[in-house]
Amino acid sequence: MAYETIIVETRGKVGLITLNRPKALNALNSEVLKEVVAAVNGFGANPDIGAMVITGSEKAFAAGADIKEMQAISFVDAYVQDFFVGWEEFARTRKPIIAAVAGYALGGGCELAMMCDFIIAADNAKFGQPEITLGVMPGMGGSQRLTRFVGKSKAMDMCLTGRMMDAAEAERCGLVSRVVPAGELLEEALMAAAKIADFSLPSVMMAKEAVNRAYETTLAEGLRFERRLFHSLFALDDQKEGMAAFAEKRKPNFTNR
Ligand code: CO8
């Protein structure tokens, strides 16, 4: 598929998606949605890919949903078309995906980063949910995911005032997992993704599923779910290989795909 709003590459076992609408600070319009979902589904179906990275430019990961596209939409259009429901497909991606965020991650951009499994931020990153300044509110998960990441007080602060937080604050409050110098962002994210992609794919996918389940269920159910997944991993060649390699003091070669 020829892409117009994103660049799609592979780096070894890692799929790399770069948002590429520089004139609009990577604002997320319907075309970006269609292309990102297609790219992620393509990597999901490709047995040679074990993890993905999504990134933007040094100035903007994404400055939000495309305001100019949304401007004229009526309630009926938004409701009947379930406007932007397609991003749920992105959030259901089963292979790990890291958001490498430099510059602005605002509105839908911040929400897209939060749909990923973790966020690595450049030291110039700025996160925010400024929808309130446009007369609306977050609509791609910001009120829900941000609250789970940073707690009620800070989520309310961000959603009600529309202010931005810098990378240091985002790391302090648990929104991002690491902050690195802007020039090292992509390398750091690709290295993390390559490390993940070298592990057993089913183990990685189950670990992701288990952590995500923590948001959906009680502790008792989550622990039971985790234990059952853990038990099932003993059916893998990769479990035998991983433990044998440890005992034999060598690097494992995982083959379950
Ligand atoms: N949409 C469309 N175009 C944008 C957007 C955007 N979100 N952000 C920036 N652009 C465009 C600008 O219009 C400008 O285009 P042009 O050159 O044609 O005028 C170009 O990008 C460069 O932007 P600026 O000149 O404004 O650059 P600055 O460096 O001066 O400012 C900012 C950068 C602070 C990021 C500024 O551009 C800004 O405030 N952008 C809007 C941020 C925002 O409000 N984002 C939230 C959008 S709403 C949203 O995401 C809702 C998601 C949920 C939807 C779910 C629906 C159901």
From TrEMBL:
* Protein's UniProt keywords contain Lipid metabolism: yes
Q: What is its EC number?
A: 4.2.1.17
Q: Name one GO biological process term.
A: fatty acid beta-oxidation
A Pfam match is ECH_1
Alphabetized, the UniProt keywords read: Fatty acid metabolism, Isomerase, Lipid metabolism, Lyase
The source's superkingdom equals Bacteria
Catalytic activity, reaction form: a 4-saturated-(3S)-3-hydroxyacyl-CoA = a (3E)-enoyl-CoA + H2O; a (3S)-3-hydroxyacyl-CoA = a (2E)-enoyl-CoA + H2O
Q: Which InterPro entries match?
A: ClpP/crotonase-like_dom_sf, Enoyl-CoA_hyd/isom_CS, Enoyl-CoA_hydra/iso, Enoyl-CoA_hydra_C
Q: Spell out the molecular function terms from Gene Ontology.
A: 3-hydroxyacyl-CoA dehydratase activity; isomerase activity
Q: Does the keyword Isomerase apply?
A: yes
CDD domains (alphabetical) = crotonase-like
- NCBIfam families from the UniProt entry: PRK05862.1 (NF004517)
Question: Family per UniProt?
Answer: Belongs to the enoyl-CoA hydratase/isomerase family.
The entry's function note states: Could possibly oxidize fatty acids using specific components.
Query: Which PANTHER family does the UniProt record give?
Result: ENOYL-COA HYDRATASE, MITOCHONDRIAL, ENOYL-COA HYDRATASE-RELATED
| Designated name of the protein | enoyl-CoA hydratase
Taxonomic source organism? Mesorhizobium metallidurans STM 2683
Gene name linked to the record: paaF
